Amino acid sequence: MVPGDICSDDVQAIVALSITLALLGILIGVLAALYYKYQQEIKIWMYWNNICPFIFNSDALDANKKYDAFISYSHKDEDFVADTLVPELEFRRKFNLCIHRRDWTVGDFIPDQIIRSVAESRRTIIVLSPNYVESVWGTMEFRTAHHTAIKENVSRVIVIIYGDVNTQNMDPELKSYIDMNTYIKWGDPWFWERLHYALRTIKTGTSKGAGALFKT
């Protein structure tokens, strides 16, 4: 068959198919770009609307944990934790939290209590502030949670940036973690939704040190 033998109907069909495929490719490209830009918002929307709930189910991994989260913070930031985080997470959103001042046993060896708090909690929330950067115990709590997450190959650390944090004076391991992983920033309009989502979901097989889910 030579080109002249192709009837006009065949040409029209080929042109129509080519246009359809081109438009489909453009649509897929646009959708992919939108998902890449807004993937966290899309995941949160799916979570709140109970779409594909099996994607977010982590109950089987943490069925025997006593707490939903251990909050690691500097005692200088206790007002923020006690007056803001705890009321919202415990009383309104019904998470069971482990907190120094309430749940630790007076007189017990602090490193042992840190290890126990991390082990008994599904997540560790790091309230990373200028005060936290200067805290020796805060660094120990972060390292314990971080090493546990790496050992289990499970995302368990959630970092909240609270205030203007200077990374130059930060513990090298913590600085490396912040540079490589994601965090939630206090003041973000989606702060509570992001934090709630991070507490309810879990990622396995992470490649960056078992970090949290969001960056702003």
TrEMBL record:
Gene Ontology MF: a single term: signaling receptor activity
GO cellular component terms given for this protein: plasma membrane
Pfam families the record matches: TIR_2
The UniProt record lists the keyword Signal: yes
Database matches in SMART domains: TIR
SUPFAM superfamilies: Toll/Interleukin receptor TIR domain
Protein's cellular compartments: Membrane
Domain TIR, chain residue ranges per copy: 65-199
Keyword ATP-binding attributed: no
Name of this chain's protein: Putative tir domain protein
Keyword line: Membrane, Signal, Transmembrane, Transmembrane helix
GO BP terms: innate immune response; signal transduction
Gene3D superfamilies, per database record: Toll/interleukin-1 receptor homology (TIR) domain (3.40.50.10140)
